[in-house]
Structures are given as C-alpha cells and as structure tokens.
User: What shape does this take?
Amino acid sequence: MLWEIELRKMEEKKLRRYLHPLLPLAPHRALSRGRGMVLFCSNNYLGLTHHPRVIAAVQKAVARFGTGSGASPLISGYTELHQELADRLARFKGTARALLFPSGYSANVGLMSSITGPKDVVFVDRFAHASLLDGIKLGGAKLVRFRHNDIDHLELLLSRHRGRRRFLVTEGVFSMDGDTAPLAELATLARREELIFIVDDAHGTGVLGPQGRGTLAAQGVDPEGIIIVGTLSKALAAAGGFVAGDENLIDFLLNRARSFIFSTSLPPPVVAAAISALRVLEEDPEPQARLRANISRLAEGLKALGLPASGETPIFPVVLGSEGRALKVASLLFAKGFYVPAIRPPTVPPGTARLRVSVNALHTPYEVNSFLKALAETLKEV
Ligand SMILES: Cc1ncc(COP(=O)(O)O)c(C=O)c1O
Assistant: This one.
C-alpha cells in the first residue's frame, strides 16, 4: 500500500509522528503511561483551562445549553452565548465585529480562501502558519513569501507585483520562533502600498498587551483597517477561532467562508469557557503577571546556558538542527520527567528541527529551574 511505503520513508527520515495520550493533571502537568511529567510545550499560556471560574462557567453552560450546538451557525447552531463571545472578542480586539469559527485553522482557511482569488497576490511571511497557506492555496491567489520579518525583502517583492489587488499576511507572535512581527512598520507599509493587511495573532491573544489584548495592542498599533485572526484554543483555554474586522468583512465572511457555513458551530460550553477566560483576563492581572515572571525566569536561565532567549513571549525555540538530534534531546528530557516533543519539518524549515519550549503561568520556580538543569545536562550528553 502506498501509505505503508510512505510511512516507512517517514520513519527512515525521522519524520514520522505518533500520538501520545496523556492524562492531564494540571495545565502544566500530566501522566504519560502512568509517569508524572512536567509539560514545557503547551499553548495553555495562562493555565486558564483549570481556572475555577472558567470551570464553573462551563458547568453552568452545559446545564443551560447542553453539550453541543446541534447545527451550523446559519441554521440553529448560533446561540446568544455565541453572540456574546463574538461581541466580547470584537471589543477586546478593538474592531467593529468578530465571527466565530470551529477552530483557528478553519478561521484562517475560511478567511483566506474567501477574500483572495486567482487575480490577487498574497505576500506572506515565510514563517506563517500552515492554515494561512492552505487558505491562500484554496483561493487560488498567487502566493509570494517574503523572508521572515524582512521589510526590505517585502518591499522588493511588492515592487515586482503592481496593478493587482494585494494582501499582506503575517503573525503577531510566530508560533515556532516566539518572536513578534514589526506590526507598526508593516501597517504603515500596508497603508502606503494599499495592501489588505491580515494579522494572525493566535499566540499573542491573551498573552501580550494590556489585559492580553494581543500583539497589535502591545505595539500600540491601531487595528482600524486590519483583519485580525485569533484562536480560543491557546491562552483562552477553549477551542475555536475567530476573525475580527469591520462590519462588511464579517457580513461577507458569514455569507462566503465555507469553513464557517458548512461546519457545526462551537459547543456552547466551549464558548462559555472562552467568555469566562476573557472575563478573567479583563478583571484579574495575576495570570498575566505570573506568566511574565516565568518568561523572565526561563529566559534568564536559557541565556545562562548560552542559548538565545529574547523573553518577548512564552515561546522559546531551542534549535538543534537535525531531526535525529531533536528527537534524542526530547527523549532524554522525557526520561527526566519533562515533556517537550521535538518539532520537525514541515512544521519548521528543514535543518531547523527544535524543541519549542513554552512556559505558562502555573510553572513553579522549582519546575523551571529543574527543567533548565535537565536541559543543560541533556545538551551536554547529545
Ligand atoms: C499561528 C497559528 N494560527 C492558527 C493556528 C490554528 O489554531 P487552532 O489550533 O485553534 O486550530 C495555530 C495553532 O495551531 C497557530 O499557531
């Protein structure tokens, strides 16, 4: 069978992936086959999945709305709770409206495939997420990738593509590198060159800026005219995605975005979790403050080991090069009780296999320090 041959090839190249069922104990701890592990890989940055207020809101929503929404949003799957979350997200991001999608992946696919078409050119940062690329490919536009965060390269490419409708796509926080895009400069360029500007802030939402409003807010960029994508699945402790933008964009998407129209809407308890997480963010500065403290602690420790660590965000890439090396380091760390899977191509470019270390608000200083010690030992061994 074709897939058996392909699987063998993946195995040989050390690119085959496996599922590892975990039994979660806390936002940063789990049992793996009965063994206690500390996780340094989750996107649950604020640990809100286990916050008492969020759990209580979910329990209340199950009792009131049931477990599932039962239909797509344009049929009967759109509840008052969905509308409340969409309104809150629009206010949180400073846009007129927002639209919920079943996942961040489907938000990007639905958005990009419906607003771009074969006559358009889309300029995309080289490190942008697969879901953005999939949406662009589905829409049939010409895809032009510029070097990561390189405005000079982008300007050069823009000068070669005039006379067509043009889009600019980047991430707020890059998911595998943890750095941020220069959004103020990009927004200025987008205005000057009349580009439609899209920012996927999956990893900035809840993490950066006042009350976790995201990377645009953190950099003081006015969201007017910018299309923002986000997820509920990371700092917001739930699942689902959203697009935030102006009235017409949202009305257009709910008429055209196929991943919105042809998929059952989010289960109400999941919506309730995200609403509650937003409330916590707006009312309680502590989770963000604890996350900041842990980011600084981990950044200092990594720097002391001679590893680059900007400490801008909770994501720290430890680039190891080959797939074999990344797998080895991950498995040695696993043996020491730390769960940080190796990230390999195509998630990251060839030759940059890595550990994507992420810290959250609930790690204790002891856990961070023990992880740093284990990482130092492991890197010496490999
Ligand atoms: C930058 C970025 N965009 C979109 C997504 C997709 O979001 P979700 O996991 O909610 O589908 C992810 C994460 O998986 C991401 O890292």
